[in-house]
TrEMBL record:
GO terms for cellular component: mitochondrial intermembrane space. Belongs to the MIX23 family. Residues 47-59 have a biased composition (Polar residues). Residues 47-70 are annotated as: Disordered. InterPro entries: MIX23 (IPR019171), MIX23_fungal (IPR016805). This is Caffeine-induced death protein Cid2.
Amino acid sequence: MSRTPEQPGLTPKFCFNQTALRDFLRISRGTVDDTISQNLNALVTPGTSKSFDPLSTTERAPRPIHRRPIDPQACHDFKNKVLFPSWQSRSDVLSYCAAVATSPDPDDPDHVIRETEDLKARERIIDERLDPYSARYFPREARTEALAGLMRNERMVENIIRSRTWGLVGERCENGELDYEGALDAWRRGEGRGR
């Protein structure tokens, strides 16, 4: 079974380091969600099926391994020990960094530069007849704004990936009537952890 990466220490410095943030999300998704078919196939124990049945040779197309049902206990353990903890770890990072993105940033290193550029832009004399581009001014984006945009994108990606993963898990394991959000909430409440 896949081993999920450890959740990094949640600090504003980690969130503003977009490379580290994206790497954690990419590695976590790659370990569990991107390889979900392989992870589910690994749950099927070879040789545990019933003994050889001569009538099975009359079947035209035997059921491929990726369609074989998985032992319910193995599915339950995979969801509770690998899938949901991975999702929860990413949810924690996304929620924390989204909170950082909406908080004031007193340590912004570009704050003074942005204020200087804004002041210069206000003092410029604009004559669009002489230079039609003179009115253009593109202020630098604060790092909290950049982080907020990244968090919006990553949340959308996360929803797409979780929906796809949950659909594949549902084909091989019994997911009940819950969607992935309901199943994750049930796991968070402890309903799925103890079974």
